[in-house]
Amino acid sequence: MKRYPSQRQWELFRLYENCPPPLPPMTFTQLWEISYQELSNLTGASRSTVEHWFSSGESKREPAERFCRRLAEIHLLWSHTERIKPSLIQSWCRLGREL
Predict the structure, then answer these.
(1) Structure pTM?
(2) Is residue 4 included in any domain, yes or no?
């Protein structure tokens, strides 16, 4: 049964709608010691694409905003591991299957 979002739900959305701010791969790797392959696995970008993010000259590519937002989400999860309950993540992951 459909329901209209509550005022509280709209307030939460307004807090979230421009978050997380993008976190560039270069900054992410200054915070976390991970390999290019692991960065590729985290973002869903190919290893070659990740290498281009860190290259210089003509082969350098800027990462798409979606990759930077993904890294910001991962940074949040990893930075607050003790405070985030696995059940919350499991609920989020089940969302698509429940619809």
Answers:
(1) 0.79
(2) no
